[in-house]
């Protein structure tokens, strides 16, 4: 098996003049061999850094997703035909700006949408604040539940979370390589558009570098995903920025192979141009709890800016203005707080295992 992997390594690591892109099937094979530790440690380290230097293609990302589809966990389809919203954020977390993603998940499920997130603990290379810790600060600890329990919670509350250390432990050894290499390999790019769901999904993912968006588009097209939203968000997340115009790529309802472009300027909607800095995890939790309680402030501005967009994009509201108005009403009425309490109660009713 190591001889087969060596052939794949030779293709991506042969230098600027002779390197070759992998076919989709080859990328899937390489990913599976790394996850299953069928390749030698030296080969895995070399492959990850060589592939980063080469840069991945959309076809290679599709192959990596194929491997995750085969080996990874999946929440099973629900009776509803509406697509599940999968929010993809960088696993290595946030270090400069406060995240709003869990609040958006609560907001969307308050109005009947379904949401799945995924991620792990503090991970390289940034070791930033991950989603799992934000949820824990809000009173929701996803880390102790089995996949069947998460499935039940998902069906009862419309929110699910794939906690990779427990639900996809094969990925954990690769994080050691990321730490030792000090760079994020293309696997980290692929994770942003991974959908751990067995049914129809609307993949919403953040990105930093513009070429990434084109790779996302190609990969999801090859995988048959017709609904997607790509956001040049804060620290690569799908949180809309407030300090600049939000650049967003949207799937076309009539021609999924085309990418529609949307630019949203915060000032056009009365949003101040200031991102909320990440001072400390404790402050993030305090600010998010204030939003859930309907209290005005800088974090509420972030919540309304993002909430308005996601309520519009998911089809709940006709436009951004009505989306922001609806988000304001849901926070102030206590509906989002009630949703959080429902989620906390549901987890309490399922003994962790």
Automatic annotation (TrEMBL):
InterPro entries, A to Z: Anthranilate_Pribosyl_Tfrase (IPR005940), Glycosyl_Trfase_fam3 (IPR000312), Glycosyl_Trfase_fam3_N_dom (IPR017459), Glycosyl_Trfase_fam3_N_dom_sf (IPR036320), Nuc_phospho_transferase (IPR035902)
Domain Glycosyl transferase family 3 N-terminal positions: 7-70
Species lineage: Bacteria, Bacillati, Cyanobacteriota, Cyanophyceae, Nostocales
Name assigned to this protein: Glycosyl transferase, family 3
Domain Glycosyl transferase family: 100-335
Gene Ontology MF annotations: anthranilate phosphoribosyltransferase activity
Keywords carried by this UniProt record: Amino-acid biosynthesis, Aromatic amino acid biosynthesis, Glycosyltransferase, Transferase
Entry GO CC: cytosol
Domain of life, source organism: Bacteria
GO BP of this protein: L-tryptophan biosynthetic process
Organism from which the protein derives: Richelia sinica FACHB-800
Listed NCBIfam families: PRK07394.1
PANTHER family cross-referenced by the UniProt entry: ANTHRANILATE PHOSPHORIBOSYLTRANSFERASE, SLL1634 PROTEIN
